[in-house]
Amino acid sequence: MIVEFAPIWILIIAAVALMLADAFAQRREPGFLRGVALLAVGLAFAVTWVRVGDPIYDLGRFALSNALVVDHTSVACELLALFALGGVVALAREHGSGRVSARRVFGEREPLLLLAGAGALFCIHAGDLVVVWLGVELLSIAALLTALASGAALANSGKRAAMLIQLIPGAIGSCVLLLGVALIYAALGTTSLEGFGRAATETFTLWGGIQRWVSLLDQHGAELAAQDPAMLGQARSEIVRGVAPAALFLPGALLLLTGLLAKLGVLPFARRRELIEEAPLHVSALWSTVAVVAITAVILRVFVGALHIPRLVNEPYGWTGALPTVALITGVWAAIAAARQRRLSRVVALLALVQLSLILLGIVAAAGFLGHIGAGARTIATEHEILWSRLSGEQAYAAVLVLLVAHVIAAVGCFAAIGASRGFRGPEVRLQHWTGMAARRPGLALAFAICLLSLVGLPPLAGFVGKLGLLRTLVEHSAMRWMLVVVLAELAICAWVALRIIVAMYFGDDPVSEPGTRREPSPWPARTAAFAALLSVLLGLGGQRLLEFGRLPAAGGAFEPGDRNRIEWLEQRRASWALEDARFVIEAEPEPEPEPEAEPEPEPEPEQLRSVDSEG
Amino acid sequence: MTIELTTLAVLVPLATALVVGALPRSEPALARALGLLGALLELAVIAALVIGFDPSGPAVQHAVSSPWLPSYGVAWSLGVDGQALATLLVVGLVFPLALVIGGKPRPGEPPLVVGMLGLQAAWVVVILARDLVTLAAAWELATVAAVILLGERGDGKMGVPGRTFAARRYAAHVLPGAAALVGVVILLGAAHAHATGGVWSWDIDALARLTLPPATQYFGFALIVIVLATTLPLVPVHSGLVPICVSGPTPVVAALLGAGMPVSLYLLMRVGLPMFPLAAGEWADPLAALAVVGGIYAALVCWAERQPGRLLAHVALLHFSLAIVGAVSGSAGAWLGLGPYLIAHGLGLTMLTTVCHALRRDGVDNLGELAGWAAVAPRGPTLALLGTLVLVGVPGTAGFLGELGVVIAVIREGDVELLRPATWALLAAASVGLGSLGLLRSLWHAGRGSPRLGLAERIRELDLRETSVCVAAIVLAVVFGVAPGWLLTRTEPAQRAAVEHLHHARCLAIEARGSVRPRTQAELDETLGGVCSEPIGRIRARYPGLAPQEVAP
Predict the structure, then answer these.
(1) Three-state SS across B240-256?
(2) Is the dihedral of CA B234, B240, B246, B252 positive or negative?
(3) DSSP letter, residue B490
(4) Smallest Cα–Cα separation from A348: which of A498, A488, A464?
């Protein structure tokens, strides 16, 4: 138990320790708190790293009175969130101008970032909807306070307005989330995610159970009212009892989803997200990476893992009804807005929003596949159709995770590169300040270029692997196939945005370049950008490793933790992966050289040879 | 451990780019010299690949394959076949020449040279790829590299006027195409999975052996047309080409015109036609018509236009119209003739780019200002005239052989795919001739007479570097024109096999029109019996508008 949730405790303890240190320290070196915070995140990362792929999480289990849960999905998302948190802590700029002494500066930032990280981990491990809400709130409030903690946040009215605009929709989102949780509690009598899918199904079973009462009233209502008023009352009571849970559950689930999407910042809450970009760079990065991982993990667990019951997924009652449209509109809006934007932090945040829209499409596809029951199978037998849909759902789930990994790495790298600019504070860095950057700081320009290109999915970078998986999933899903066109158009616009920046960096004149009076950034942002760029390249070239990272959580993702079927399915999948890996090894081995002294054989036709090659 | 030549062909420019990238910006001459050395090495590797290709051996030679994303069925797979030789040679020949021309080396050169070498490596991968994802990935990289390179020194007070606009416009044209290619890749991968019971593979040969339902074919081919419409280019979306020829960096423009357009045509012949044969056959006439309209339009522009950059763009458009007609005709002879034709295209346009951009460097924006040019700087008009002659296909050059081969073959054999092969071939050839005459006339007018006052001070003679490039291009064009046999014998079996496969695939697609799911050709052959053993007859039976006579053997 201690080890399973150790990263959460590590972050909380480190946050408290840093607060105390900040309160009592008389003097300290700049970057001291950052070093300690990075150490804590690194320790938590190491603890999580050793647990990735551990078979003891095959079944998954609830702990702490079902408040928390641990399985392969939670471990994978935790690792990713900790990486993102480490990047966010590392890219945060030193406060104040270069002319001001660094002896005494604000020290709340690192503890608050760690608390935000702890909130994210609570979301990832949430075994109860109340914990989801608490985690989201901890994350949101810590992020807001981090924005306020930056020295001049309240100095001018524009920033104050931005904070307020961020606060109010955020509060509305929280209320919607809480209302959704409350309605679900009213419907199911519990907020625990243990047996959540089963409990949701039971509400509809109750609904189905009252149909005989409904038909009784339809056919003999008047007669019953005349002859047996007591029975009429009982019939009405039974109908209300059967309908009420479902009538509460459906809006509850939708409100829960709406609250989560509001926190993610999709339209119509995207404006709020944009205003967050007025906040310090590390807060923008926090929302674009750590928060995205945490809330995506919640959606995967609650909606894909538990609520992939066909009628709950698909239209007209299903939760995926409007989600693809919202995601597509958000993506198109963000891509167009990025093309018109000059502030680099906003450009990156908007590109990250496009990635988020793709992740949401992947989630919808995964749920759609997992909710497919083989009805309407045309060309293959129903049982094969079900197996196909399960495998496709698993691939879509894995594609979401891979996309998430690539997105987080690239986004952290981009924000870190901007953070490494000299002169202006992060949100004020504009495209013209980076013109000719390749001549001044070639390493930084290269890292930024790689991360940008990975973000838009250029091969052979990690982003490409994620996009390929997602596009494959979309084309497999007959109802989502048409979205391919929109997604490709979005990606083309994003590529245009990235290329504009890269052209300016490499071939622009050497102009004004990074004016301003900000303190010289520490080496950490540049290091983070370089590391993220390196990872993007390595995970792109070695994309199979990335796919392997996603496939184990994906295979168990369709089952609730503790479901025995999960073990059985994972065993089957491991066997097929072993075959796949063996093929990988065999294909990787060089073909033996033909014997030069071999007896000459009649030469086959070129076409025949080609066939043999391809079959081999 | 041995490295296959195909791998070497990709690694050489990349390794050179790494070395050049490590140079300081203060060493522009060294950067360009190293870049040239790398491009020459690459040419040597490509020449070894072409010369070492055994036409009676396996269809794909020097094959290397290594899994990249086995879970998705993606492999890093390279190999050379006879169909790829000519385009590969064009890329190998154009890049060393393109790297030399343009202004003198100046600070900021390393990124340009690195980008050019990256572009070359990406195009080589496009040509050698045996896996569609690898091909598309390289295509995307090449597109990105081209867009970035076109923006070189386009911003700021010292930038070239109009260059940023040109780069943006070009990007707006080609990026949707790059996205569309990803769509094609995904479509074909899914089709393979559906045809084979769930096996995901992007092996190009395996994909070419699929028969897709008609709707998928039309959609996929429409995507291919979107990919190629701006890079070939086709009217009316050719407008991205004009501004880059006017204000783009000289080496990049030469590479895009000389090598980029042939690579695009190769993509059409490698992916577009064999994988969507039904749509390709039905849309061959509209495509040929578009190419011819583009050619006629460009020919008229060549008579009227005086701006050297715009003239250059329209000459490229003009010359490629016949190549497009040859490609969509599905004629083995035309595909064979395209080899020398594309070589002439690459060499001739490199020469014209050199001269036109030399004029731009001297501030000449109108050929009308150049009366007496030949008296002041005789090399420029002379080399431009020779470049035009290479393009128009004067006897003894590669262009003559290519043009003759394409026109005759389209007329004789193009009636399987085209309804009016003779019309399109003759119109395209006539437009090439007409446009070239217009260009020659403009150059003649510019060169003759006594020089205007002040022209001698304004116009500089082409320097030794640029002259050497043009002379080398002429020599190469003559060599390929006089002794084309060694290339043609190597490419012929593959081109004939590819055309046979195209007809067979089209016949199967016609017979399986009612099918709602993709199927492998082997499965269809088995189901249909020997219906497509004589595919041309079946195609003619399905499309009565096609000429009734048999195709010449």
Answers:
(1) HHHHHHHHCCHHHHHHH
(2) negative
(3) H
(4) A498
Reported pTM? 0.86
Question: Does the distance separating the beta carbons of B182 and A587 come in below 8 Å?
Answer: no
Of residues B231, B137, B151, B141, the one with CA closest to residue B185: B137
Residue A69 pairs with which residues in a beta bridge?
A62
Closest CA relative to residue B470, chosen from B366, B367, B395, B390? B390
* Residue B451 contacts residue B371 (beta carbons within 8 Å): yes
CB contact under 8 A, A507 and B59: no
Quick: pLDDT tens for A345-380. 888 989 999 999 999 999 999 988 887 765 555 566
> Under a CB-based contact definition with an 8 Å cutoff, are residues B351 and B386 in contact?
yes
- Nearest by CB to residue A509, choosing from B155, B189, B193, is B155
Cβ-defined contact of B67 to A587 (cutoff 8 Å): yes
Q: Which pair of structure tokens corresponds to residue B453?
A: 């006052």
Top pLDDT among B128 and A143 is at B128
> Are the Cβ atoms of A471 and B186 closer than 8 angstroms?
yes
- Distance, CA of B6 to CA of B316 (rounded, Å): 29
Picking from B53, B85, B86, the residue whose alpha carbon sits closest to that of residue B338 is: B86
The residue of chain A nearest to residue B521, with distances taken between CA atoms, is A611
Q: B447, B367 in Cβ contact below 8 A?
A: no
Q: Would the CB atoms of A491 and B179 count as touching at under 8 Å? A: yes
Q: What is the pLDDT of residues B488-514, one digit of tens each?
A: 999 999 999 999 999 999 999 998 888
- C-alpha neighbours within 13 Å on the C-beta side of residue A141: 10
Inter-chain contacts counted by CB atoms under 8 A, chains A and B? 161
Residue A516, number of CB atoms within 10 A of its CB: 14
Binning chain A into helix, strand and coil, the percentages to the nearest 5 are: 75, 0, 25
| A477, B149 contact by CB (below 8 A) | no
Task: List the 9-28 stretch of B: residues with Cβ below 8 A of A.
Answer: 25
CB atoms within 10 A of CB B517: 15
| SS3 call for A341 | coil
Structure token digits, residue A487: 């997604």
End-to-end CA distance of chain B, in Å? Answer: 45
